[in-house]
Amino acid sequence: MHLPLLFCLFLRLSGSSAISGPRAVRGVERGSLTVRCRYDPGYEHYVKWWCRGAAWENCPFVIKTTGSEKEVKKGRVSIRDNWKDRSFTVTMEELRLDDSDTYWCGIEIPGPDLGNPVEVTIDPAPTVLISTLATSNANMFTVAPKENQGQLPLLGSVHFLLLVFLKVPLLLGMLGAVLWVNRPLRSSGGNPEKNQ
Fold first, then answer.
1. Cα dihedral sign for 38, 40, 44, 49?
2. In contact, 145 and 153? CB cutoff 8 Å
3. Which residues form the Immunoglobulin domain (predicted)?
4. Is 105:19 a contact under the CB 8 Å cutoff?
């Protein structure tokens, strides 16, 4: 094999140093996630792409740019290039569990393309059971995260749930016990000696 061919094969299999991105990202079902891939100077006007599949040689393209900075949207996926920052972002929306896979962010160049693998993992959306005092039946709320900024909504927060369902009732129970123990004793007939 020729040395340049081996080098190109190495770039395809291991990822290129001319393009970089996160090794792995996580999203939540029904949310969205954004992957940002950076590239070296000189690649601004080239087509950028996002493909799905662990095997580079038969990784089908999910979406490509047009070689401009204009956003391209295809189904639940969009891609936008930013020449000034030398980066492009891929956004996947309305995530599904079966979106978990190996993806590649890449640059289309003459000869073998440049690429970087990204492992995408989609976690199930959290489900929270909330009982209300006003009604006897429990209401089930599915908490769908907003734009997956790495933060769970208030109802999905473990600390919030502990506060509402454990700490507050415990505190109220202790307060009630203290008030009950320290309650003033009622005297019968106004004679304090009968109460002793």
1. negative
2. yes
3. 22-123
4. yes
* Angstrom distances, CA of residue 62 to CA of 40, 54, 84, 129: 23, 13, 24, 37
- 133-184, pLDDT tens digit by residue? 334 444 444 444 444 444 445 555 666 666 667 777 877 888 888 887 887 7
Alpha-helix runs per DSSP H in the chain = 3-14, 158-162, 168-181
Q: Nearest-CA neighbor of 172 among 128, 133, 129?
A: 133
Q: How many helices (H) and strands (E) does the chain have?
A: 3, 12
3-class secondary structure, 126: coil
pTM of the model: 0.59
List the one residue out of 55, 21, 56 whose CA is nearest residue 38. 21
Which of 58-62, 87-91, 190-194 has the lowest average pLDDT? 190-194
